[in-house]
Fold these 3 entries.
Entry 1:
Amino acid sequence: MTHNTSFSNRTDTSSRRSVLTSIATVGAIGVAGCLGDDEDAPTEPDRGPFADIRIEGLDIVIELDRDADPIEVVNVIDPTGSLFTQQRIEAGVTRKTVQLGTSYVPGMYEFVALVDDEPIGSTEHKIEPELEIVDLKLGRDHPDEMYENATSVDTITNAIVTVKNSGSGPTGITKLQFEGDVPFPTRDSYEDSGIYDTDRGFGDADFVDAPHGRETVLYSNTRPFLLTSNVVECTPDTTEGIFFCRIITSHPDLIVSKQYAVQYTGESLPECEIAIEEQNP
């Protein structure tokens, strides 16, 4: 089962936030002032001792310039101006990995390097997820793509949904829902994720990690295409409808929905053929 990751080294002390915000501001002004004195100076901000900031999985990786003067502390300030974490840098260390998780505040993060509690350089890095549904298939049409040990009932009643996170930070997928003209829409009272837990091999996952720059495959676990229903009809002349696939994430403002056209053709639901097609926004 996938588990969420809580933040470490986080502080809510208001006085400390004020001091850190002031430090970050002074550092930024100092760098800007130096650049402004020289008309021929490069327009890119001075990264100070930072060689690279990147996201790997659910972590922030801070790479320090091997040729720069040693630093003692890196403060990471989140988009609200609060201290996200403070990391001490031991002598000789040029790489630091910081736990990010999936419930962080999206936006621009500032990384401030300090020596003797004085800022000597800073840089910024945007950390923000961007999720989209890129594919939806019916298990009944693609049994070879279902999860291991899927039963025949699981295969013919569930969907395979592929999502892509093209943003700069990870997120957690907490719910997979189906609404509209499907035989078995997700009930409003259904509180679980509706995503099959491939780690445990049964039940609903708490949620599924969606790292940035990667595609993640989800398997429905609510049997939305169970062919016993009074919601839709299956007729020889084809019954048409519209349904929505919705993804809810650990970031409240990141909810993704896609519309599909669906056709049901056959003498009755148990013998029905189902065809789906993605609709343009």
Note: The chain has two domains: 14-127, 131-278.
Entry 2:
Amino acid sequence: MSKPTEHNALQQRFGHRVRKQRRDAKSSGFGRLIIVIYGVFSLSAGVRSVYQLGTEFSAAPFAIILSTISAVIYVIATVALSRTGPGWHRVAWIAVWIEMIGVLAVGLLSVMARDLFPKASVWSHFGAGYGYVPLVLPMIGLIWLWRTRPNHSNG
């Protein structure tokens, strides 16, 4: 009887790991880069929001609430983009549309009513504090979601 290899020992201990094939085009290739960027924005907007809620809320409650909302939307978009299936695709589509509308509305409002924004939000001035990525990201996200929608041949 042969001595079990390290690989066989691990399989005996933990079982066989079956790698599940991803069947959702939105979360592979370029989609993975989009998911990573959304994840980074989830983290950065979330940390900023928590910090501002704890230290600066009384100075700019409206802007800080908007930053918190943007963080939540980024988290929802990140999760939905990373999941497979038509339901998650629909959630991602809705989240990214809300993000697009939010960044345009808050961007315009922050330019026209500066007194509402004594502290900047993530989407203030169309995301200028983040290199305008908050303005461009939902555009790219919506195009990607459109191109990778379920039952759509990319050929």
Note: The chain has a mean pLDDT of 85.
Entry 3:
Amino acid sequence: MKNILLLILITATLSACAPVLIGSAIVTGVNIAHDRRSAGQVLDDKIITASVKNEIRKSLEDDSRIKVESYNGVVLLAGEVKTTDDRIHAEDAAAIKDGVVKVVNELKLVDEISKLGRRSKDSYLGSKAKASLLKIDLAGFDPTRVHITTANREVYLMGLVSRNEADAVVERIRHLRGVERVVKIFEYTD
């Protein structure tokens, strides 16, 4: 009887958490189902991203602004640093991690790291770019296969796509107001 009461108590306590856990698992499952990478590679990329971010945080000044994204072992570093040494150090921190095939270092040297307003505009620009992919009318195109990172009004595109898909994505995004540059880091299926 005590075990049953304990089970009911635990269930009641966790009942609010259950939808969150189940929802999170469903979203991850859906993302993997639409991804052209294997589930193992998706997980490896998440581990690489977290590991590189952690290594950079340990070794660089807090006033740098670095975005890290990994796709199929290719690591993108985008954002701002104050010194060439920080730029090189960030790239080295990424390059030494297991599973990293290539590092694309797009870090900009700046005198002053951008403020919250600039960062908010970049976030908005990234959301606008993602939403614009829904308007692409191309047979078999799935916008969830394109990973978008924005920094300094520049849009970085990663994913495993066909050349036609890549061209359509770039064409759609390069015309958005506020986009100064589009950088393709795609891998191609054809």
Note: Strands lie at 65-71, 74-81, 102-109, 146-151, 154-161, 181-188.
